[in-house]
Write a structure and sequence with these properties.
The complex is a heterodimer of chains A (218) and B (174). By secondary structure, chain A is mainly alpha-helical. Chain A has one domain: Iron/manganese superoxide dismutase, C-terminal domain (minor pseudopilin epsh fold), CATH 3.55.40. Chain A contains 8 helices and 3 strands; from the N terminus they run H-H-H-H-H-E-E-E-H-H-H. Chain A has a 3-stranded antiparallel beta sheet, sandwiched between helices. In chain A, helix 1 runs antiparallel to helix 3 and helix 4 crosses helix 5. Chain A is globular, with a radius of gyration of 17 Å. The two termini of chain A are 15 Å apart. Chain B has 174 residues and is of the alpha+beta class. In chain B, a hairpin with a 6-residue loop joins strand 1 and strand 2. Chain B has a 3-stranded antiparallel beta sheet. In chain B, helix 1 runs antiparallel to helix 2. Classes of the chains: A mainly alpha (218), B alpha+beta (174).
């Protein structure tokens, strides 16, 4: 198994002015690429890791299926590779972002009261994650929508190590590298702008799969 | 509420008692909210206070030969160069947001290099920080993007050992 940096479905400048082209370029070609390189190095050093695909590696964090001396390496770099691969797919140019499906909208209303209340809760999770990490909207076992945040490159697929496991349908990177060049310390402004570039078509698809217990196919 | 907030304790003293407070779950099963806030903001305050105080545009770049600090560094690390290598490596390998610190263990008198996540302070471990480097991305991203290694090298060019010697003298006098 060789891990590869996925291409974006849009140009680096396509999310302007909400996410700037320089950030997208560095984020994809440096930060994400480093996670890919390090995962391939991990497989080189520990070939048994190569028998598991990226999703499985994430799901097995904290279990004995991953060698103990590779756990942190896989958590950080396998998590980083999955998270960023997922993130690029839930973003789209502002002109093409559509909206939630009727099923997803009903689920959002049911779980949070309204779309605005869901966004409010998501924004709070994103702003409140101290240090580096991610905010997530996901489907819990049982089918209910939930909002959570994780530290560093953890994600809610890592059921054995996170507070709240779920299948992600939407995520937001709140590491400073995701916003500092344009927003500096104004993380809440970055979070507000994020909503203008959410790719609801992708999110709708992930939601439909998640209600069947299936993780996003990247 | 955290004890000492009335001004009867220093921030450092409160920080050293924080682990006990954090370990005590409140009614919701979570540590007291003010303890968590103190960890982040008190830690951030102490860490940045020291960081800015130990840099200078015209720094003393190495300890004064034969000084108590120079001797302590040689004893604990072997040499100044060995210490620099360890500190550099610690700073480079922090994953996510955090710091690398040169700390004094007041019980053993030994110096060591530690990493801390987010704004956690070495005072939480009963250790006294003498020098620290902020490796949160905000500390270097605007000038250097992801190149943390370049930032660490540049930081060594502005670290002022005169300030660290002063701090060392203060903490070892008591």
């Amino acid at each position: 198994m060789t891990f590869q940096l996925p291409s974006l479905n849009y140009g680096y400048e396509a999310l302007e002015p909400h996410i700037d082209g320089t950030t997208m370029t560095i984020h994809h070609t440096k930060h994400h690429n480093t996670y890919v390189t390090k995962m391939n190095a991990a497989v080189g050093a520990c070939p048994e890791l190569g028998s598991m695909d990226l999703l499985t590696l994430n799901q097995k964090i904290g279990t004995s299926e991953i060698p103990a001396d590779q756990m942190t390496n896989v958590r950080n770099n396998g998590g980083g590779h999955w998270n960023h691969s997922f993130f690029w797919t839930v973003l789209a140019p502002p002109s093409s972002t559509n909206g939630p499906s009727s099923e997803l909208k009903a689920a959002i209303d049911g779980a949070f009261g309204s779309m605005d209340e869901m966004k409010s809760k998501f924004n709070a999770a994103a702003a409140g994650r101290f240090g580096s990490g991610w905010a997530w909207l996901g489907v819990e076992e049982g089918g209910k929508l939930t909002i959570t945040s994780t530290a560093n490159q953890d994600n809610p697929l890592m059921a054995n190590v996170v507070d709240q496991a779920c299948i992600p349908v939407l995520g937001l990177d709140v590491w400073e590298h995701a916003y500092y060049l344009k927003y500096q310390n104004k993380r809440p402004e970055y979070i507000q702008n994020f909503w203008s570039v959410v790719n609801w078509e992708a999110v709708n698809g992930y939601y439909a799969e998640a209600t069947q217990g299936k993780a996003p196919k990247l | 509420d955290m004890a000492g907030m009335d001004g009867t304790s220093t921030v450092e003293e409160m920080m050293s008692t924080l682990p006990t407070v954090l370990a005590t779950a409140g009614p919701s099963g979570e540590p007291d909210a003010s303890a968590t806030a103190f960890r982040k903001n008190g830690g951030g305050y102490l860490n940045h206070k020291m960081y800015f105080a130990t840099m200078s545009p015209e720094p003393q770049s190495e300890p004064t030969p034969g000084s108590p600090l120079a001797q302590a560094i040689d004893t604990s690390f072997g040499s100044w160069a060995d210490f620099q290598e360890e500190m550099t490596n610690a700073a480079a390998t922090v994953f996510g947001s955090g710091w690398a610190f040169l700390v004094l263990d007041p019980v053993t008198g030994e110096l060591s290099v530690i990493q801390k996540p987010n704004q956690d302070s070495p005072y939480m471990d009963g250790l006294i920080p003498l020098l620290g480097i902020d490796v949160w991305e905000h500390a270097y991203y605007l000038l250097r993007g992801p190149d943390r290694g370049d930032y660490i090298s540049a930081w060594w060019d502005v670290v002022d050992l005169a300030k660290v010697e002063e701090a060392f003298a203060r903490v070892t006098a008591s």
